[in-house]
Design brief:
Blueprint: H1 3-31, H2 34-60, H3 64-90, H4 99-112, H5 124-151, H6 155-176, H7 185-207, H8 219-249
Helix pairs in contact: 1-2, 1-4, 1-5, 1-6, 1-7, 2-5, 3-7, 3-8, 5-6, 7-8
Protein name: GDT1 family protein
Keywords: Membrane, Transmembrane, Transmembrane helix
Organism: Amycolatopsis bartoniae
């Protein structure tokens, strides 16, 4: 995989997670207290930095074949989960993810929670809500960056891509003080699901001892193949959904 492809794959995957984390932080700040929400986000980022610093060197001593087998399996879990939801949304069997609706739901829940100062934090609810959102979504960002970077022997580039995605999303979100509803997140999740599934198949196969024709060039076939298969499933499910709806109207 080239450096450009590595950067793009990590950037797109991390953008999805960053949008979801930002929505939670903005909801906590809008409905409760901006300082507490910001403190929670910064604390979560610091905790993630410590975790990544501890795990990063450990990955270097794991045998590459074993690492790729484990990473391939985990990427398949992530990728297939995202791809399944994206296929169901694209075919009309599942409601599309709406950042405005998610933002409104978080704000409504935050407004009903009682105010409580604790451990020097003015609003503990806003702090914990922001911390949880950033830490959990950040774990996925760290996992994506470390696994992609380790497999391609370029963790710094993967880290730069992840940080770039976070910076772009955070700057855009806080500039307008609203969720990034215009980001085509459902389409982005479909693309990322395809990419993670294809990379999972590739690295999992290598870890199990398979030798792909053309080495990294096999990804140029795997990614479109997974994408076409997913689009085929969308077409089939849409046809079945339309047929079921027509029978229901008769």
């Amino acid at each position: 995989m080239s450096g450009g492809a590595l950067f793009l794959a990590v950037f797109l995957a991390c953008t999805v997670e960053a949008v979801e984390a930002l929505t939670i932080v903005l909801a906590a700040g809008t409905a409760r207290d901006w300082r507490s929400a910001g403190t929670g986000a910064v604390t979560a980022l610091a905790a993630l930095a410590v975790l990544v610093a501890a795990l990063g060197p450990a990955l270097a001593v794991v045998p590459l074949a074993g690492l790729r087998l484990v990473v391939g399996g985990l990427l398949l879990v992530f990728g297939l989960q995202w791809l399944r939801k994206a296929i169901l949304r694209a075919s009309g069997l599942k409601a599309e993810h709406d950042e405005n609706a998610a933002f409104g739901k978080e704000v409504a829940a935050a407004k009903t929670a009682p105010a409580q100062a604790k451990s020097g934090v003015r609003d503990w609810y806003a702090f914990t809500l922001s911390f949880k959102g950033v830490f959990l979504e950040g774990l996925e960002v760290a996992f994506i960056a470390l696994t992609f970077g380790s497999n391609q022997h370029d963790v710094p580039l993967a880290a730069i891509a992840a940080l770039s995605a976070i910076a772009v999303v955070a700057a855009a979100g806080f500039a307008v003080r609203a969720p990034l509803a215009r980001v085509p997140e459902n389409s982005l999740k479909f693309v990322v699901g395809v990419m993670l599934t294809a990379f999972g198949l590739y690295w999992g196969g290598e870890g199990a001892g398979a030798r792909w024709p053309g080495s990294d060039a096999a990804l140029l076939v795997l990614v479109p193949a997974v994408g076409l298969f997913a689009l085929g499933l969308v077409a089939v499910l849409r046809t079945r959904t339309s047929a079921t709806a027509e029978r229901g109207h008769r």
